[in-house]
Design brief:
The chain is of the alpha/beta class. It has 12 helices and 10 strands. The chain has 2 domains: 186 residues, P-loop containing nucleotide triphosphate hydrolases (Rossmann fold, 3-Layer(aba) Sandwich), CATH 3.40.50.300; 139 residues, no CATH class.
């Protein structure tokens, strides 16, 4: 049977919610720096995106409450599919089984048989629906009762017959599938589509940019190291500008990776500038515009920054303290406070 993980939903968003969208941990602004807010167009685009994501949550809720037998959601990577599904499951405190990567038809049968009353979340398994055995299992597990007096949970008999043995069980759970592609146009899956919730999450660039800006307003934290909202907005604006110039589709995963690139550079743990690291991600080839430094040079630079931070710590006026820091290091005010924190000052 395909390897699975059992997860009990929690009400917070700090769970390890799969696919990459889970890294959005808000971080406090640790030391000044103004971050631009959202424009009227941003709010309008966020409202349009929220309406789409609410439909995802409602479809997820329908499966979790057993009103529907399944929900198939597809769309481009990094648009918030898995995040919205998992957010709703956590809000409802609904336990679920998560499967990803690869699964066969018999693996699907075994998984459903092992937890016949549970919610099964299948992520990025487009290959599964090309398995003839899996199609049969899905049709059996997802048919629903007809008529005007439906009783919940709906019971569906699922069988798997071989030459010598017949396996069967009654399935009362639900299945949620997220993918980047629609279901193939074959009669068996056309029949499945009529029995389940089926949705294409199409998110425009303007909607994603608005979401990226909103996420930036909350800052970012990884492994205890924080980037302020102002720093995140700087990274976000640069990423948007670069992506537009390349006619590259926006996605949340690239934004999160760009935040990490920035922090790696800010903490003197990379020889290349964060802008070059972001450009490399977008163009998928090495890009070197800014000055490249060795790790020894970067380590020496951090020591110099710590010394400057120690020197300016006694300056009582915040603006004057930042002016001197900026003049000597070229770094932002949040970085100054980060260095002071490292010094215990």
């Amino acid at each position: 049977m395909h390897r699975s993980m059992s997860r009990t939903a929690r009400s917070t968003k700090e769970d390890n919610v799969s696919s990459d969208e889970s890294s959005l941990t808000p971080a406090a602004d640790t030391g000044g720096g103004e971050s631009p807010g959202l424009t009227a167009d941003d709010r309008k685009n966020l409202a349009a995106l929220e309406a789409k994501l609410q439909m995802v949550r409602d479809m997820t809720h329908s499966v979790a409450s057993r009103l529907s037998t399944a929900f198939y959601l597809y769309g481009p990577g990094g648009c918030g599919k898995s995040y919205a599904v998992l957010e709703e499951l956590h809000r409802l405190k609904t336990p679920y089984r998560l499967y990803n990567s690869r699964m066969t038809g018999r693996g699907l049968f075994n998984a459903l048989e092992a937890y016949p009353d549970g919610i099964h979340l299948l992520e990025d398994m487009e290959q599964l629906v090309h398995d003839a055995g899996a199609r049969g299992v899905l049709r059996s597990a997802l048919w629903g009762q007809t008529g005007t007096n439906v009783r919940l949970p709906q019971e569906r008999l699922v069988t798997w017959t071989t030459y010598r043995t017949e396996h069967q069980f009654v399935f009362t759970g639900g299945i949620i599938m997220t993918a980047n592609r629609p279901l193939p146009a074959v009669p068996e899956l056309d029949a499945v589509k009529t029995r389940i919730g089926y949705m294409h999450l199409a998110v425009g660039d303007d909607e994603l940019i608005a979401l990226m800006r909103k996420v930036s307003l909350g800052g970012f934290r990884v492994n205890g190291v924080a980037a302020s909202p102002a720093e995140c907005r700087e990274v976000c604006d640069h990423l948007v500008e670069q992506a537009r110039g390349l006619h590259r589709q926006m996605d949340m995963r690239t934004l999160i990776n760009a935040f990490k690139d920035y922090l790696q550079w800010r903490e003197c743990q990379s020889g290349c500038h964060w802008r070059d690291m972001v450009a490399t991600r977008l163009k998928e080839r090495p890009i070197g515009v800014e000055e490249v430094r060795t790790f020894q040079q970067r380590a020496s630079q951090k020591q110099e920054e710590l010394e400057v931070a120690r020197e300016v710590a006694h300056i009582p006026n915040r603006h004057e303290r930042f002016r001197v820091w900026k003049e000597k290091t070229g770094k932002s005010e949040p970085t100054l406070y980060r260095r002071l924190e490292e010094l215990g000052l």
